[in-house]
Design goal:
Length: 329
């Protein structure tokens, strides 16, 4: 039985649903959170708006699959040191866009830069070496390795991964010792140190997500990209996961995460970018984005049963419209 399952039921206050869990997540009151809020409050919430300190800039990125345009992003700037959520209904193009930015897919046209350096045509490994790293779901192969082995494999300077390195054993041994110390430190941060010798495949859904994040930190990234970090996570671990994401920002990293559930983003993100049908249709602080007509239309158009999040964040006119739509069905 997983820890999550064991915990369930023993605490009366434990959330039953992810939404319930999210409702109790408090926004970090760290200096970084306050600075992010203060700086972004001065940015106009309009698509393509300039940011005061950009870490990534995207221009005219288009990706087509046959006759279908999956991504068509004109201009996007990502602010350094804040948590940006990339949201949108199913099929909006989020994953495709994410794969393009991280070098896992190639666009038909467009350019984008990270820290002022063009990433066009750069391999995923090179993108990671430049300080932008994405999390990966645990593959079957990685599930058969222990938690610690997963961490060591993620270390960028692990010469044991290549033949030459394994031949110069004394050099490798020194690096491995340093990497092991680093891995154990990071695992302790995620409360996974006691699981270091367990097979990664034996971890619960939430613990896997934490390991994915922990692995990414082995490369000391400047920017960390998370793909649906809350997907498949037990409500009992959602709060802890969100606290960890905020802690990344509080430690000075830039975070960009993809999510389709609005509930998940409003509590922790500093800035929200909304995609629909391949295009960015809105961007702004979570509160204003949820009241944006284009966002409501995008979600309603794609998914009539989508819950937009906390009703109290919607103004009465929007609520009345949603109720009218509901009545019509
Ligand atoms: N390799 C591919 N070949 C053909 N079509 C694709 C491919 N990858 C994505 N698409 C299409 O591109 C569109 C955008 O898909 P994408 O997965 O990027 O959306 P998404 O916003 O991430 O959706 P979800 O939230 O469901 O993951 C969809 O219509 C999808 O079917």
């Amino acid at each position: 039985m997983s820890d999550e399952t064991q915990n369930k039921g023993t605490e009366v206050t434990e959330p039953e649903t992810t939404v319930e869990a999210l409702d109790t997540v408090e926004r970090s009151d760290s200096v970084a959170a306050k600075v992010a809020e203060h700086v972004l409050a001065k940015v106009e919430p309009t698509v393509g708006v300039s940011k005061p300190d950009t870490i990534m800039v995207v221009d005219d990125v288009v990706r087509r699959f046959g006759g279908m345009t999956a991504v068509d992003v004109g201009h996007l700037e990502v602010q350094r040191g804040v948590i940006t959520a990339l949201i949108g209904p199913n099929g909006a193009g989020k994953t495709t866009f994410f794969n393009l930015l991280t070098g896992f897919d190639k666009p038909n046209q467009g350019s984008w830069s990270f820290e002022g350096r063009s990433l066009h045509g750069m391999s995923a490994t090179k993108v990671a070496r430049n300080g932008m790293v994405r999390t990966f779901q645990l593959t079957k192969a990685l599930s058969r390795l222990t938690v610690l082995q997963n961490m060591l494999l993620a270390a960028m300077d692990n010469p044991g991964e290549n033949l030459f390195g394994s031949l110069v054993r004394p050099l490798w041994a020194g690096t491995e010792k340093r990497n092991t110390e680093k891995a154990l430190e990071i695992l302790a941060r995620f409360k996974l140190d006691t699981k270091k010798d367990d097979y990664a495949g034996s971890l619960s859904g939430g613990q896997r997500k934490l390991l994915e994040m922990a692995r990414a930190l082995m490369t000391d990234p400047t920017m960390i990209m998370l793909d649906e970090p809350m997907a498949g996570v037990n409500p009992a671990l959602v709060q802890s996961l969100l606290h960890h994401i905020q802690a990344l920002r509080d430690d000075g990293m830039t975070v960009l995460f993809v999510e389709h559930d609005m509930h998940a983003v409003r509590h922790i993100s500093d800035w929200v970018v909304v995609m629909a049908e391949g295009k960015i249709v809105a961007e702004g602080p979570p509160k204003s984005v949820m009241q944006d007509q284009a966002v409501i239309d995008a979600y309603l158009g794609a998914h009539h049963d989508t819950d937009l999040g906390d009703d109290s964040l919607l103004d009465p006119a929007v609520l009345a419209r949603l109720e009218a739509e509901e009545d019509k069905r």
